[in-house]
Design goal:
Its EC number is 3.5.4.32. Pfam families: Amidohydro_1. A hairpin with a 2-residue loop joins strand 2 and strand 3 (about 30-35). With about 450 residues, the chain is an alpha/beta fold. The protein has 14 helices and 17 strands. Strands 1, 2, 3, 4, 5, 14, 15, 16 and 17 form a nine-stranded mixed β-sheet that branches. It has a four-stranded parallel β-sheet with strand order 6-7-8-9. Strands 10-11-12-13 form a four-stranded parallel β-sheet. Bound molecules: zinc ion. Zinc ion binds next to loops.
């Protein structure tokens, strides 16, 4: 790959001062220099004129369920528990083909919103329906995003006091074997890694204490990270109090599920003490404001968490509870939720950008490699065209975060490789990818109907 020079660009590097007119020098998959003024003369370099553009680190998505691309627009006016109860058995009908189409479309959609790294939390593995984990990994390779799939799981069905029907849960020993195999097969711990696997039992109301404990031991023995849903709704808190006699964060503490290698999705219903525990233990969280709003789950205490030193990243969450949600849009949604709750100084545009980049990188344990534009980091860069309509906004970072419509994406680089150019995916045929996502939806509905399940 020839060197790349991006020049005449407004740089918002997240770490260090902004530079109104500067350059980025990329060699291979790394940033080798970021600075003010014109780029150096580098023979053979691909020169990108960034006039009228804002350069930011690529956005990092730290919570998703890509398979849900195939079940969007259903159970529209329900709480989390009602929504899950309506959808579990539809999801039980999915196969590798559904996951492949859904994941491709979901990841392509994320790339078009400036995302260069995405995690995914896949926790339903119906038997005899192909290799679902491999299917989403194949999709990520094709689209060209850095991928952190989490091997999810559920082992506590309704007969054991859990929320999901027994048909969608797996046995503990099967889960641990499959999770270990996923890590051994796919996890790449290298600096430049395009794929790292996490261990991710689904939630306190669908997983046994034994699975949580065993999963933590497995992840720590293999040096990978831990992820689960936590404190998303008050229904969950009531469930935990009733079943285990503890609130969610206390329960996690008992199970050994706090620490710098853990990040939770949502973390909405936290006490002051919970926030302090997150800060003290280095436990992260993925804020998913659109999903939280859609399900009426609540508003996370993000500005208080940041103020007290707890790490927060962003996530779009699964598409079935956040239809067609862009990651750039979640910066705005996060900012507006915090301001609606705490007032206009609760979250700045730059803080929203920071949680969407460096905060996400910390959740995934990649703050050394990702999340800011600095020499030595991986060349994951979003170049936003803020020179046309957005040029009427004096501050380009404000234009990016405050605007309802994302500024055009001039370029998206992942490890120096162009994935998006002028709002078009360059790695795959964009329209085909989108249509395959629609076909995945129709296929899932057909498969579910064949098993006698439907939802509207
Ligand atoms: Zn989720």
């Amino acid at each position: 790959m020839s060197p790349t020079l991006i020049e005449n660009v407004h740089l918002a590097p997240v770490v260090g001062p902004e530079i109104p007119s500067g350059h980025i020098h990329v060699e291979g998959d790394r940033i080798v220099a970021v600075g003010a003024g014109p780029a150096p003369d580098v023979p053979g370099a691909d020169r990108i004129d960034g006039t009228g553009c804002l350069a930011t680190p690529g956005l990092v998505n730290t919570h998703h369920h890509l398979y849900q691309w195939a079940s969007q627009g259903l159970a529209q006016d329900t709480t989390l528990f009602e929504w899950l109860t309506a959808l579990y058995q539809v999801w039980a009908a999915m196969d590798a083909e559904v996951v492949r189409g859904a994941a491709g479309a979901g990841l392509g959609y994320l790339a078009l919103s400036g995302c260069t790294t995405s995690s995914d939390h896949h926790y339903i593995f119906p038997k005899g329906r192909g290799d679902l984990f491999a299917a989403e990994i194949e999709a990520a390779r094709e689209v060209g995003l850095r991928f952190h799939p989490a091997r999810g799981s559920m082992d506590r069905g309704r007969s054991q006091g859990g929320l999901p029907p027994d048909v969608v849960v797996e046995r503990l020993d099967e889960i641990l074997d499959a999770t270990a195999e996923a890590v051994d097969t796919y996890h790449d711990p290298s600096f430049s890694s395009m794929l790292r696997v996490a261990v991710a039992p689904c939630s306190p109301f669908s997983v046994s204490a034994e699975l949580m404990t065993e999963a933590a031991a497995l992840a720590r023995s293999k040096g990978v990270r831990l992820h689960t849903h936590l404190a998303e709704t008050l229904d969950e808190e009531e469930h935990c109090l009733r079943q285990v006699g503890q609130r969610p964060v206390d329960y996690m503490e008992k199970l050994g599920w706090l620490g710098p290698d853990v990040w939770f999705a949502h973390a909405i219903h936290l006490s002051d003490g919970d926030i302090d525990v997150f800060a003290q233990t280095g436990t992260g969280s993925a804020h998913c404001p659109s999903s939280n709003g859609r399900l009426g789950a609540g508003i996370a205490r993000v500005s208080e968490m940041l103020h007290r030193g707890a790490n927060v990243g962003l996530g779009v969450d699964g598409s079935a509870s956040a239809e067609l949600t862009s990651l750039s849009g979640e910066m705005r949604q996060a900012l507006l939720f915090q301001r609606a709750r705490y007032g206009p100084t609760a979250l700045t545009a730059r803080q929203a950008l920071e949680i969407a980049t460096l905060g996400g990188a910390r959740n995934l344990g990649r703050e050394e490699e990702l999340g800011s534009l600095e020499a030595g980091k991986l060349a994951d860069i979003a170049l936003w065209r803020t020179g046309a309509f957005a040029s009427a906004v004096a501050d380009p970072v404000c234009a990016l975060v405050f605007g309802t419509r994302q500024p055009p994406l001039a370029r998206l680089l992942v490890g120096g490789r162009t994935v998006v150019e002028d709002d078009e995916l360059r790695t795959v045929a964009q329209d085909e990818l989108g249509r395959a996502g629609g076909e995945a939806h129709r296929r899932l509905m057909r498969l579910a109907a064949e098993q006698g399940f439907g939802v509207s």
